[in-house]
């Protein structure tokens, strides 16, 4: 087995005596996406800063290796292997996108010719060629994020830390960013992604760790995490109160919501299960105005594990 891209044991950090990370273990295999999920203030950025050598862990932390290098004794080697795109953009708005890129090429000691080649290639790849000669301050939020990642890639990092890369982006820009992240991984890069969007972790991550109260509350593949909580349900909605009452009598095992005229029935969402529910409605001679199937998703896992109500992700109810 190859060495993991990131292997940290007992990662600890406190600020002013307040523990933010209470000895967490992280292992990220090469060429995968690992997502650290957590509510506001859980310590996601702190973890990124520690692993990218921007701050130092507390004494008592265990071994931390990034790209095979010991963080404590070889920080320069770690820095040479990683790229970090933080919540606060490294883009300088006063100069053009191209100039921002060339500046990065200089910082990485690329020759003039090589710097121009890499800049042109990355601007093209991130769909920024047309805007290359415009000041970055005129770019949209999505363009700035793309430029930020393009700048990170100038040094050809093997591991990239993306700290909430899509916060504040519109759905189209978010999907573009997801595509970029997938392409990076296809190219062999390891991505350490923090996000508050469960849907994002579900889409992209091979493994997810949920951070809560300084500890990893759960870790696994998206499917493993979803299996941690009980199954879903079917919701039937009615507009006619008489139809609702008849349905409630026919489906006596359902949970009733008299105000919303809706019934909720435990279900695994399978075709067979749905057919049984529909047959029971048919027998009673009623038709629901709306039927939705709710399968457990990472929102449910997150709420169950963290008790948080601050996550802005959408509930995944699929109308059928
Ligand atoms: N330099 C600092 N000094 C003191 N406290 C800090 C410092 N940096 C972070 N903290 C505190 O540590 C906690 C974790 O912060 P961190 O930014 O790592 O959380 P986060 O999970 O990234 O949150 P968010 O989703 O809001 O970005 C917060 O309570 C924060 O106020």
TrEMBL record:
It is a peripheral membrane protein. One of its GO terms (molecular function) is ATP binding. Residues 6-238 form the ABC transporter domain. Pfam families: ABC_tran (PF00005). Keywords: Antibiotic resistance, ATP-binding, Cell membrane, Membrane, Nucleotide-binding, Translocase, Transport. It is found in: Cell membrane. InterPro entries: AAA+_ATPase (IPR003593), ABC_transporter-like_ATP-bd (IPR003439), ABC_transporter-like_CS (IPR017871), ABC_transporter_ATP-binding (IPR050763), DrrA (IPR005894), P-loop_NTPase (IPR027417). Belongs to the ABC transporter superfamily. Drug exporter-1 (DrugE1) (TC 3.A.1.105) family. This is ATP-binding cassette domain-containing protein.
């Amino acid at each position: 087995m190859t060495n993991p891209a990131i292997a940290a044991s007992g990662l600890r950090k406190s600020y002013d005596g307040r523990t933010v990370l209470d000895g967490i273990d992280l292992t990220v295999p090469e060429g995968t996406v690992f997502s650290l999920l957590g509510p506001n203030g859980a310590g996601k950025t702190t973890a990124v800063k520690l692993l990218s050598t921007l701050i130092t862990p507390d004494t008592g932390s265990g071994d931390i290796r990034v790209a095979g290098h010991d963080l404590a004794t070889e920080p320069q080697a770690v820095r040479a292997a990683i790229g970090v795109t933080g919540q606060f953009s490294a883009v300088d708005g006063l100069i053009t996108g191209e100039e921002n890129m060339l500046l990065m090429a200089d910082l990485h000691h690329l020759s003039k010719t090589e710097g121009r080649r890499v800049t042109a290639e990355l601007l093209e790849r991130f769909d920024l060629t047309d805007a290359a000669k415009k000041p970055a301050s005129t770019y949209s939020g999505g363009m700035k994020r793309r430029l930020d990642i393009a700048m990170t890639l100038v040094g050809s990092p093997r591991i990239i830390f993306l700290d909430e890369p899509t916060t504040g982006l519109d759905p189209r820009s978010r999907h573009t960013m997801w595509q970029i992240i997938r392409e990076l991984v296809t190219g062999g890069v390891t991505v350490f992604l923090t996000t508050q969007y469960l849907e994002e972790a579900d889409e992209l991550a091979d493994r997810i760790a949920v951070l809560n109260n300084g500890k990893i509350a759960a870790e696994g593949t998206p499917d493993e995490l979803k299996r941690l909580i009980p199954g879903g349900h079917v919701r039937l909605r009615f507009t006619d109160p008489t139809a609702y009452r008849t349905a409630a009598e026919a489906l006596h095992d359902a949970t009733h919501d008299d105000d919303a005229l809706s019934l909720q029935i435990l279900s695994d969402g399978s075709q067979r299960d749905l057919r049984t529910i529909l047959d029971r409605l048919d027998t009673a001679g009623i038709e629901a105005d709306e039927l939705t199937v709710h399968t457990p998703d990472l929102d449910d896992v997150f709420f169950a594990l963290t008790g948080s109500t601050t996550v802005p992700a959408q509930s995944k109810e699929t109308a059928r």
